[in-house]
Structures
1.
Amino acid sequence: MYHIGFGLDDLGASPPSMALLSGDPERSRMIADNYLQDVRLLSENRGLHSYLGYLPNGCPILSATSGMGAPSLSIVVNELVQVGIRQIIRIGTCGSIQPYIPVGSIVISSAALCRQGAANDIAPVEYPASADPFLTVALVKAAQELNVEHYLGITASVDTFYEGQERTDSANPYLLRSHSGMIEEYQHLNILNYEMECGTLFKMAGVYRFAAAAVCGVVAQRTVEEKVILPEKDIAVKNAIATAIHSVFSS
């Protein structure tokens, strides 16, 4: 595959049907190094690091990288489906917009409010961005069994980190009128968090006929401040990874 840098022939006699998809290549490497066995690097093409490994029960699985944002994810997911992937769990980070969801916890997305241009190239705006119910329930059960603080609900997926998430502490402190007050509006819609990928992932899953879910570590509490809380980021990410791995291994 042109972008991900590997093909079906590189996946062996028993190719994986499941991929754990991270935006950050370092997270993909960490999953491969710390949670999988007999790991083999497939590609580092374009920074989209991909690894083939095995769960303790011998099940093959990919740890792959989507890059930042929906356009990059849409390319990677399209090519992963071409090489036989039929289940994808996004393991990411997010900012909470509800005061009761703290940094360090995880959000499991049941669906997404999708404000993403890449998704509009794949399906109409009205097309639902819904997570696979079976993968989602498995994530919730895994979080419960691991005693990880978790929240299940709707995620806002947007294209930009700053303006699109109503951040003013940036190079551009001036928001479009349509973006000003958006967090408060979304709070009243019972949306839990902001992130930048799962809306497009969920729409692709519906159109391409694969199963998708998402679990994100909460690294910012947007009702308090705009910045990512770095000391607790590692905790949030480890909680998200552990939940995803446990959900796959248990199922």
Note: DSSP finds seven helices and nine strands in the chain.
2.
Amino acid sequence: MPTKRLALIGCLSLLAACSPQAAVNAAAVAPNAAPTAGPPPAVDCPVPADVYDADDVRIYCQMPSDVQAFLARENTCQHFAGEEPYDDERRRELEVANTEYCEGREKIFTDLVARHRDDCVVRQALIAINGRYDLVFELDLKPCEG
């Protein structure tokens, strides 16, 4: 019995250590660690639970507040889009969630692209977000030159 408990604790510890939030917290705790690509995450920037995609968690604190809000909204949309309407009540809940979080997402995204077109860091992030979530296919969003 103690061996099984120890194995379970070990597995849970590994899982917790490998979570995207753990990586952000580790970078904040060890400021003298070897530098990594990109700017360090903000220490006082908690990533909301709504943002669960690992790539979105990684960039969240580097983004302006409007892009952060979009990431939270889009992650919630993706969550509900994957749910099954197993009965009428759940179907209605999913329809409400779709209306609240998914409708108009392409327009919101297009507005973000226009608003941040001159910020290369945000522009690169928006290109990646567009690729992850297939938001606007016909959007002519090219990487910054340089």
Note: Residues 16 and 71 are 23 Å apart (CA to CA).
